[in-house]
UniProtKB/TrEMBL annotation, chains A, B, C, D, E:
It comes from Aquimarina addita. The keyword Transmembrane helix applies. Pfam families: CorA (PF01544). This is Magnesium transport protein CorA. It comes from the Bacteria. The gene is corA.
């Protein structure tokens, strides 16, 4: 997400609105479809090859969850669109990874977009586009690729733990969104650890060479996270307040709780944001402190030895008539003077707290 | 736009409100008029010499798009104004390139102003003033000069691809605005690349000489873009919410989508804005780091050789009685002392991590 | 305006509210009264000696504009107040140059305060206090001194150009306010030029000595302009929205246009504000860059000659037994060593890009 | 106010809400009570020893103003509370100097808290807590100590100048608040002068030693002033809008005017705030500029004399075979070389504009 | 609170919503239950071993306060939940220390979350999670561990001082919240002292080594405090405005007062926040000032002795023909020249105010 990647912008430029085109970079994902069909008493789980099989399930029982990985397979999205009579702009948004989190309310269904965030194997922030279509008795979830944060929910459906089996599609939507938001906490935590590491590096004054770059990257990441998370507040708030036959009153308590969680994440993000902005100043003072130290060493050594060298220079002169040169202990007296000068200057710097 | 150019302010100063005067700098553009007249089944495309010919088209068929390049030809604008009975302030705004994006709602027509943004051949941000008058069955678009982002729409009208031929003038307005906004994504992308280039320059510490100036220019450009894009949010929002017979319910879904896109652009702009503001700090630390390096070299060399020079100075003195001078290996012993001092200091600096 | 000048605060302190006292510094302005009395077909222009003559005009014909320069003549203000039955607080505000832009709505009249801005002959920002009383068929304008931006309007009244002669007092109010706001564009332009000059000075690194002071002054000026212009947005917005028998529907289009212009000025002000704030950072980096250059010169020269001087010092020692001194080509060999050292160091600094 | 002083927090901790306890530091103030009892035609002024005497006055005539200095005498506050049946929380707030400006509306009376600001004899910002209880026909004002800004009002009551004698208790409340706000202008003025002094010190580069501290103090003071003044906007706005039988329509014009004044003060405060924040940057550049100057002196002297000393060192060497030493004019030639080097370097630094 | 600690996030990840799990770090707290059961005339205080005993009290008399320390004992929370029929999400929030301050309104009870703040024995900010369930005639308070700020209230219940015994459960809720907020004032005070200490350290220029770290820590702490305190404004405001049978009109005055206090704390927090942000700048100038001083010492000593050493070098040369060397008083004359040079340079530096 973050920036519109060149390819993404290029892909969309000049297209008919409503064209279903995948704008992300996981273009080689396989299409994977799984169905959970459940009610209070029973449940069925199945992996499908063809999206059309899923439609049969969606009709039959109280709640059906169809999860689709691989939104690069736009033809599957289009089939679903045709079956459920979804608005073409929704189909576009399912495949358009640039779409920000939002909720669209239609008469027969709701459409929710949000972002799954995680640090990938290179410790880089990855943003995966997820969208949900919620209708009477079904939830269809669309993901970019395999791997998600919904395993706990899958297990709860299988084992019948918690409320999920006893409630409707709206609760399932809540549960899925809650899983995504819960995962934000992990992300924020990792973020916090990274910042503390940077702070410690700065404090121990052993900054790795590219600390400016690291700080700037952190800024960029926190801004991207903000952008992925903050619109979600409005989304959840609107779902909670919405008077739509698909959202039951009982679920609203849960949505309010979810809203609370997002606010919490948002606040943490803003705290980290301020901390990161402070890091640059902290780094600047670190550099200046180091410079101070360097300058002190130079000043102390130069200030002590330059005058002494001058004295030695004096008695290295070749004037025919320099009486001191003939003194028997002249050399020793000069050493005495030099040593006294040396320690006086040392004492002076000590008093100035430069040593 | 950005700043009111001297000429622009001078031109308008003291004029009767409603005077149609072109305030931009493309004063030598030729007048170019093209007409697209279409319905579901047929379409006609024509280049016109005289604006009055266009009026005939606008009356006949469901949708007519009259595109006029060269708003410096104010007499043509005035003719249109007379024909469609447009308010004199609208005519002024069509020609006034200083006008910010806005929507004016009249009983029989809507008036929309927005800005087309692109980087010109000198890589400078160029802002072109575009306005639309939308009435029953017609859209008139006014541009400063040839060259625009509407080719995809022209093609869609010609080929009948997408919805444009089956819908009304309000959809055409949407399509034209959408083309402008889609192009913002390209702009933002280029902006992002420029910023990353600057960041890389700073990181590789080979900043080109005028990097401060570059950063300040980027700031200026992002502020100008903000100013051209941000009012558009309000414009599109108001068109979507507006209950005007010219805007059909079906088009509102598309306008909401357009609104979403503008929010996305706005968010990117604000992210880049924060990144640019951070660049100056990053540059400052880069400079300070370099200074540190310079100072370290000076300090190391001076701190090593100044004391050694002092030692050499001592034995360059001409005291008659300096016993060491007469030692057989005095010279070699001194070399020994010097070499030990040299390596001790080297070790000291190594331990301080200055080497 | 900007700061309350000592005298201004002192003058007002402890006075009965509603006391008419001039708080500006143009205390020696002469009283100058001019009247424009016009309708669609005829107009009369007269310079008056006595304010009471003006009342006669105001009654007779459709629109009368009484312009009064010299609000230090508070007795004239009081006479007008008595004649038109104005609230004492209005009279106070006419003379109180500290009063910020505002609109007060009374049953029979409107009272508008705004600020005329210009750069005086010393290139300093000057702020002149202007207020308007608008009643049925008359506008009374109050200015601090001679010289204003209304000449274009005077001419339009004389020649009957534009709409002014065909419309009412509300349109005249609009026209006068529009003239003031149009002039803001000039001001903003000059401001922009000043900032660009400062930027160029900084970039060419020949900053005049007091650039910090200049930047701080610019900040102060932009803040004062902001303060004079920003409240006007609310003022014009309220006049436009107001349902007052004095404001006709036809004039509202013009007021909306005026509002647009003020927003435009406001946006420019905020852009310049950000640019000025950036200048200080820019200056800081300029200083640091210069320091870097200075340090490099010192470091290069010291780092090259301090080791060489040490070498020379070695062979200036007086040890009896220094074999090298007796070598036939010792002196030449040493020169060789020194020259090699010299160029090695030069090469080292070259590679570090310090040369 | 500013910070809760330790004693203040300690005093209040764990007390029953509604306990009347003085939290300020003027604990040795004497109790001083004065009464102004007036109507259109007559007035009486009296100094009282006992608060109970005041109650008699408050009942008799149209308007009675009871002014009480010394809110450390909490027993007097409690007596008033009992007599007028005031809510215990009001009594607490009268004595609690930590209380921020506010308005509390009760059925029979209004309670207003605000802050009197002045610079004390040490030029430090002093904040005095003032509160008003306004009922039918009476105003009771509570101050911490003697000395206030109400003398002009006392005189107006005595002489019958202005409207105060002809209007009710609500106008008296307005007049007293207006006097406090008028005094803010003086304060703001002094603040402005201080800032300009600091700016001039910085500009003339003779910053007194503790300028950082001074700037930080100014920041602290402006923040405290903000905090004392800004809530007053809301207070006055609410009184003006309030539909309470104690506030007459006629007085609302005056309150609107007062509101205007507070806005003006607030704007000045924010301008000064930005100026102060800018001072730190200004100081930073001043320091850096000075450093630059110091470094230039060092660089020029070192860069000129280090190479020359090297040359002298060369010919101080004791090689047996240094042909130049035997040249007749060797010494003079060397002087020539040295002088040329000296002026070349001087010219170089001149060209670099370091001299 | 502040950051979600790793364990906390890990604990909650993937759990069924409504699972009661303690996420804090005081996992070894003992369960401690105390009951205050009182009315106007009598009161009973008891320490309980089993939570179920408490239910008996809650039913009997007008007001019962059950205080529970040790929310790590989640089984006790669950029992209460079952007895009072609390929503599972409330039980989760009682134990979830990450929960931000909030108010949840249910038909039969209110649920309030807030944060108790204090500096622990290591002078670190500690945040303790407190929640209240308020029903008809009872308040249940949940704390993480022993030690709180409610002793004053316990005493007031015991002695019957103040209003607490004469009023209902809503007043008790107010009193408990008020105690928490009162304690914020102490916290803020300590914060203020810490900041002033840092300021003084910076001013006396004896910054302890890790002052950057200290400042950054203060930032972090003030951000955490903000986060714990600011949502409380909304909470108290909502309770005050709420029309719930549990909140009586009489208590609303007290809640408004409490709201006022929170605003006061919030304002102080924001003032300190700005002061802390200013500290980094202050530190930066301190460092730069020190650097300036160091550089001055170096410059003065080097600038004086380098030229003198050059002079000595000249007369240390071995040219055969250096006439000055043979002058009888050559040596003394040179000394004279050197001393004059020395004092001239000293005078120069004096005039530049570097000495």
């Amino acid at each position: 997400m973050g920036e519109t990647t060149p390819s993404a912008a290029a892909k969309q430029q000049g297209l008919v609105p409503g064209t279903v085109i995948y704008t992300g970079d996981k273009t080689s994902s396989d299409l994977y479809i799984e169905v959970f069909d459940y009610n209070k008493d029973s449940f069925e789980e199945k992996e499908l090859n063809d999206i059309e099989e899923a439609f049969r399930y969606a009709e039959s029982e109280p709640v059906t969850w169809v999860n689709i990985n691989g939104i690069n397979h736009t033809e599957a999205i289009e089939k679903i669109g045709k079956h459920y009579d979804l608005h073409p702009l929704i189909l576009e948004d399912i495949a358009n990874t640039q779409q920000r989190p939002k909720i669209d309310e239609y008469e027969n269904y709701l459409f929710v977009v949000l972002k799954m965030l995680y640090f990938d194997k290179d410790e880089k922030l990855a943003i995966e586009h997820i969208s949900f279509v919620v209708g009477k008795g079904y939830v269809i979830s669309f993901q970019e690729a395999d791997g998600d944060v919904f395993d706990a929910i899958r297990n709860r459906i299988r084992t019948g733990k918690g409320r999920v089996r006893t409630m409707g599609a709206d609760y399932l939507l809540y549960a899925l969104m809650d899983a995504v938001v819960d995962n934000y906490f992990n992300l924020i935590e990792t973020m916090g650890e990274k910042i503390e590491e940077l702070e410690d590096d700065l404090f121990e004054e052993k900054p790795n060479d590219n600390i400016t770059y690291d700080i700037q990257s952190q800024k960029r990441e926190i801004l991207k996270i903000r952008r992925a998370v903050f619109p979600l507040r409005e989304v959840v708030n609107r779902i909670e307040k919405m008077e739509h036959p698909l959202i039951h009153e009982k679920t609203q308590f849960y949505l309010r709780d979810l809203y609370d969680h997002i606010i919490q994440v948002s606040e943490s993000i803003d705290i980290y944001r301020e901390m990161i902005w402070g890091l640059m100043d902290m780094y600047m003072t670190t550099i200046s402190n180091k410079m101070n130290e360097v300058m002190k060493v130079l000043t102390i050594i130069a200030s002590i030895f330059i005058p002494l060298t001058f004295l030695a220079g004096i008695y290295g002169m070749n004037f025919e008539n320099i009486p001191e040169l003939k003194f028997k202990y002249g050399y020793y007296i000069l050493w005495g003077v030099m040593i006294i000068t040396f320690f006086s200057l040392l004492y002076y710097f000590k008093r100035k707290k430069w040593l």
